[in-house]
């Protein structure tokens, strides 16, 4: 009887959802957000300057008050437009309010003057579309602030979407272990449809001091090699990509 009561008491301290995604959202831990919009024609310079200004002290303070930290912005040209990705950590209670919260926090930057919203953004009353967060690998947190951060983009083959989603619900432990050894942290994957194709973005922090050495170690890891063989077959690289991924240009970090 004591054992049953103990287990019941323990269950009240835990939060349960019906998927890994739900469990994480219900855990109270910071969520990772990826927003997307395209650049209005002829507005590249103005938008770049406004996004770089988000790293200024007064803006980071305003963002922090709205539960937004670790903001970084990137851009890349594909599908006939230049696309902007905004990434940040969010500790607000309502995850799906992250885009609206971001817009409120940076309202004085008037970013909307220089962007074209994704067609679906208007449904949610925002200018920036919050992308679908399909995967997060925390890895180990024993090191300090990242020495580098970057984002990449690719496309997913339509017939491979289900396979790719399932793989990222069950990322192999050996792959995660190698990310830790290679000094990568906070790896997030996002999906969004652009026109009639499904695009994938990822953002990751690097906390090491020799990225070429660490990447070389990853390429030699047998678990990662087998993982890439499966995942690469699900992807349709963009023109100019190195392998399956196209690096995004960093605007601010």
Folded structure, characterized:
The protein is an alpha+beta fold. The protein has a single domain (17-252), classed as Alpha-Beta Plaits (2-Layer Sandwich), CATH 3.30.70. It is built from nine helices and eleven strands. The chain has helices at 2-12, 20-25, 44-52, 57-65, 98-105, 161-169, 173-181, 211-219, 222-232; strands at 31-39, 68-78, 81-90, 115-117, 129-130, 132-137, 148-156, 184-194, 197-206, 246-247, 249-252. Residues 5-13 have low confidence and may be disordered.
Please name the CATH topology.
Answer: Alpha-Beta Plaits
Largest sheet: 6 strands, antiparallel
What spatial form do the alpha-carbon principal axes imply?
globular
Helix percentage range: 25-40%
Distance between the termini: 55 Å
Radius of gyration: 19 Å
Query: Structural class, judged by helices and strands?
Result: alpha+beta
Q: Can you tell me the residue ranges where pLDDT is under 50 for at least 5 consecutive residues?
A: 5-13
Number of strands: 11
Question: What is the CATH architecture annotation?
Answer: 2-Layer Sandwich
Integer count of domains: 1
Provide a count of the helices.
9
Amount of beta strand: 25-35%
According to CATH, what is the class? Alpha Beta
State mean pLDDT (0 to 100 scale): 92
